[in-house]
Amino acid sequence: MAVPAKDAPREYAIFCQADGSGERLEYLVKEYGAADKAATIGDAATFTAPVKEALHKGCTHQAEGSGDCLGFAARDASGVLTPYRFERRPVGPDDIRIQITHSGICHSDLHQIKNEWGNSTFPMVPGHEIVGIVTEVGSNVTDFKVGEHAGIGCLIDSCGKCEQCAVSEEQYCKGGIFTYNGAYPDGTATQGGYSTHYVVNKRFALHVPKSLPLEGAAPLLCAGITTYSPMRYYGLDKPGTKIGVVGLGGLGHMAVKWGKAFGCEVTVISTSPSKKDEALNRLGADKFVVSRNKEEMEAAAGTLDGIVDTVSAKHDLVTYLSLLKTNGKFVIVGVPAEPFELPSFAVVFKRLTVGGSLIGGIKETQEMLDFAAQHGIVCDTEKIGIDYVNTAMERLVKNDVHYRFVIDIQGSLVA
Ligand code: NAP
Ligand code: ZN
Ligand code: ZN
């Protein structure tokens, strides 16, 4: 079987993804409208031409900048994303190159393109929920193979020497480098996954099990691990534990899925009554409480062992603390820009623990991906082309997404 040339990495990635699976290829042909479907199955030599043509169809992005990588970047705190070209480093001995197929849109991307946390640098290509196909590996890399599905989350490097790095909690390393809105040691800005490819050190690349569809797997790299990690760390993973999830968005719906897989009883606490039916009947939550409904909140008071708070905007903690039992745990993972008010009475009189958590370490992220594959868990996604990205951001502001936008990079962005 003829393999597409590596100097056409996108076709090569598609080939690797389709190889050996007529079903997958049929899907690709359907999605991207190859001209000659009959000639495609299982024969790269014939599928390359029509699929290639279809893949490049309609992709006419005129980008500012120069370099081998094409992405969409915000130029200032208006947050509007437009095509932007830049250079990725060549693959070094310890690196792998990932041809990106899908990139999730996290609310943190929105906070940062609008400089809501006050630390943004522009131009900024966001994206830290990255999956794709390995198209090149460095000479020291033995555990990643060309053609494999791989992912990158929020971090791409750390010091490797400190106490946190020693236990693979690199997210708390002072020398950590973020996937975008960060800087390499030479000062060059890191750029994220709303782009065609990424070159990353093997220590920060994840193996994405082949059984997980790439689209649904992408948001696991942030939304997935950010909820999985605190639920494990704070012991909210024991069968029968009564847990609450505040905010049914990208992170929140993953917390519900983990909770059910751990055998917990899960209550969703939401501002959106319209999400009740889906929460109970599709995501499998046990209970649904509307946080703006006083009677429902009073009825649920003192019933929960732990709460994961995923809310992205300013909100009043004391309302939610009332839902906890004595010794309950309240874990903050949402990062609104404004500080919380924490009344001492609410905490002291029930011996509550109020904690926080940042993504998860690399080892635990791999564990989470393997757990997801074992239990058939992926994110619920709305797939979009890159040209829809600014509209998607507007919809995210309005809390209008089920439950994660994922950009179909391979279908809409060609370098
Ligand atoms: P998202 O999809 O927009 O979900 C946030 C949810 O919060 C919404 O779906 C909504 O749920 C609820 N909400 C929104 N405004 C609210 C308000 N004013 N009062 C109460 N609830 C409100 O966002 P996401 O991607 O899941 O991210 C959530 C937050 O986590 C963001 O701040 C993000 O930056 C942060 N984050 C943190 C980490 C970390 O490492 N700790 C990692 C990733 C993201 P309902 O409709 O159900 O109320
Ligand atoms: Zn994120
Ligand atoms: Zn370190």
Write the layout of secondary structure elements.
Layout: H1 9-18, H2 22-32, H3 44-56, E1 64-65, E2 69-74, E3 81-86, E4 95-104, H4 107-113, E5 130-137, E6 149-152, E7 155-157, H5 163-166, E8 177-178, E9 197-201, E10 206-207, H6 214-217, H7 223-233, E11 242-246, H8 250-262, E12 265-270, H9 276-281, E13 287-290, H10 294-300, E14 304-309, H11 317-321, E15 324-332, H12 344-348, E16 353-356, H13 362-375, E17 381-384, H14 389-397, E18 404-408, H15 409-412
Parallel strand pairs: 1-3, 11-12, 11-14, 12-13, 14-15, 15-16, 17-18
Antiparallel strand pairs: 2-3, 4-5, 4-9, 4-18, 5-6, 6-10, 7-8
Helix pairs in contact: 7-8, 7-13
One zinc ion (ZN) is lined by residues 158-159, 161-162, 164-165, 173, 175.
Family: Belongs to the zinc-containing alcohol dehydrogenase family.
Keywords: Metal-binding, Oxidoreductase, Zinc
Domain Enoyl reductase (ER): 79-398
Structure commentary:
- There is one protein chain.
- With 415 residues, the chain is an alpha/beta fold.
- The chain folds into three domains: 5-55, no CATH class; 64-221 and 362-410, Medium-chain alcohol dehydrogenases, catalytic domain (Quinone Oxidoreductase, Chain A, domain 1); 224-356, Rossmann fold, CATH 3.40.50.720.
- The protein is built from 15 helices and 18 strands.
- Strands 4, 5, 6, 9, 10, 17 and 18 form a seven-stranded mixed β-sheet that branches. Strands 13-12-11-14-15-16 form a six-stranded parallel β-sheet, with helices on both faces. Strands 1-3-2 form a three-stranded mixed β-sheet, with no helix packed on it.
- A hairpin with a 6-residue loop joins strand 2 and strand 3.
- Helix 7 crosses helix 8.
- The longest helix has 14 residues, at 362-375.
- The chain is globular and about 60 Å long.
- The protein starts with 8 loop residues before the first helix and ends with a helix.
- The structure holds NADP nicotinamide-adenine-dinucleotide phosphate and zinc ion (ZN) (2 copies).
- Residues 158-159, 161-162, 164-165, 173, 175 line the site of one zinc ion.
- It holds the Pfam family ADH_zinc_N.
- Its cofactor is Zn(2+).
- This is Enoyl reductase (ER) domain-containing protein.
